[in-house]
Amino acid sequence: MDLHFSMFLSIITICSFFLTSLPPSHGQEYESYRACNTNYTCGSLINISYPFWGENRPRYCGRSDMFQLSCDQNQSTSIQVGSENFTVVWIDPFSYTMRMMRRNLVPISCPSNFTITSLNPALFFYRPQTVENMTLFYSCEKQFSSSLPTEIKFNNFTCLNESGKEEQGFYVNETELQKYGEGLPECEVKVKVPVFRDVALGNEGGNEALNTALAHELDMQYTVELGCPGCCGSGGMCGSRMSDISQFSCYCRDGVQDLTCYNHGKSISFLL
Length: 272
Ligand SMILES: *[C@@H]1O[C@H](CO)[C@@H](O)[C@H](O)[C@H]1NC(C)=O
Ligand SMILES: *[C@@H]1O[C@H](CO)[C@@H](O)[C@H](O)[C@H]1NC(C)=O
Ligand SMILES: *[C@@H]1O[C@H](CO)[C@@H](O)[C@H](O)[C@H]1NC(C)=O
Ligand SMILES: *[C@@H]1O[C@H](CO)[C@@H](O)[C@H](O)[C@H]1NC(C)=O
Ligand SMILES: *[C@@H]1O[C@H](CO)[C@@H](O)[C@H](O)[C@H]1NC(C)=O
Ligand SMILES: *[C@@H]1O[C@H](CO)[C@@H](O)[C@H](O)[C@H]1NC(C)=O
Ligand SMILES: *[C@@H]1O[C@H](CO)[C@@H](O)[C@H](O)[C@H]1NC(C)=O
Ligand SMILES: *[C@@H]1O[C@H](CO)[C@@H](O)[C@H](O)[C@H]1NC(C)=O
Ligand SMILES: *[C@@H]1O[C@H](CO)[C@@H](O)[C@H](O)[C@H]1NC(C)=O
What we know:
Blueprint: H1 3-13, H2 31-36, E1 40-42, E2 45-48, E3 70-72, E4 76-81, E5 84-92, E6 97-102, E7 124-126, E8 131-140, E9 156-160, E10 166-172, H3 174-180, E11 187-196, H4 206-215, E12 218-222, H5 228-233, E13 237-241, E14 244-252, E15 255-257
Antiparallel strand pairs: 1-2, 3-4, 4-5, 5-6, 6-12, 7-12, 8-10, 8-11, 9-10, 13-14, 14-15
The structure holds 2-acetamido-2-deoxy-beta-D-glucopyranose (9 copies).
One 2-acetamido-2-deoxy-beta-D-glucopyranose binds at residues 70, 78, 80, 83, 85.
């Protein structure tokens, strides 16, 4: 999608943009329209709408289960990405960018398998060139640290596993993984964790350097349905089918439509 088109989309996906120019509605507003015409607000995150849902915005006001936001104490917002919880720092609906920070650091918890592949890249993806995979090994053979290559001998960490027991492990970046690969100690658990690419880890190693990498903010890009601009432009609220969140629906003041609120063959050419 070219830049100009995506900026055009982002302006009109802020649905209320056109609402003031529409005639006032008569009768009672459709309940689902009203539900989706409610923004998510929590702490410093204000006026968040489609494709996000959560708290006061029902699931059908969002695009996918991935876009569920949870508000903690009216202060901070969390989102689950893969198997990990992140704090949402901000969302910019104009550039479709969400900045987030990992919540669980070591030693509080051993990072669980972050199934990067469970993300649907058509909906949600890391901003290209900003992440690299850190590989963490734990539940390793006894005295594994003595068999770590000298260059990475300080890449060790301690964390608490799901049973609250202490585990010892070590970590390598992509370059180190390629370099030492087969020569690394035997471990039961091997997980890949995406971290910000250019974070400076320093030389201290240990939990501190690992946490520096884990805690760094990451930017995600998200997408909206192509049908959304047309829906917004016709005075509707973008959402999804109540029975199937993967299908787009347009919630209008007088009912739900597949694409736009112009359901009697009216032209939508004023948009283009
Ligand atoms: C959020 O939306 C409300 C209602 O339109 C508006 O009054 C308010 O200024 C908006 N807040 C921000 C920060 O944009
Ligand atoms: C929701 O947020 C948008 C964008 O900031 C704003 O224009 C709109 O008025 C808000 N809607 C409500 C119902 O607050
Ligand atoms: C949440 O906090 C904002 C400002 O910090 C306040 O205006 C709002 O009433 C609070 N909402 C709830 C449900 O406590
Ligand atoms: C993420 O946070 C929510 C709310 O705090 C919690 O219910 C959920 O279990 C957490 N999920 C993970 C994988 O930690
Ligand atoms: C990280 O690993 C995942 C799964 O192996 C892969 O799909 C992804 O491309 C990797 N990311 C980078 C930046 O190499
Ligand atoms: C890393 O290994 C050294 C011994 O090689 C040990 O003294 C240190 O406590 C370990 N650090 C962590 C965080 O496990
Ligand atoms: C946690 O660690 C303990 C001790 O190392 C181990 O016995 C247990 O199986 C581990 N639990 C999980 C869920 O990995
Ligand atoms: C990986 O770690 C090595 C140090 O062992 C460092 O020189 C290199 O810059 C790191 N690579 C990346 C991509 O972070
Ligand atoms: C982590 O996920 C990968 C890919 O889904 C899988 O091959 C691997 O066995 C998993 N590891 C653990 C410890 O669950």
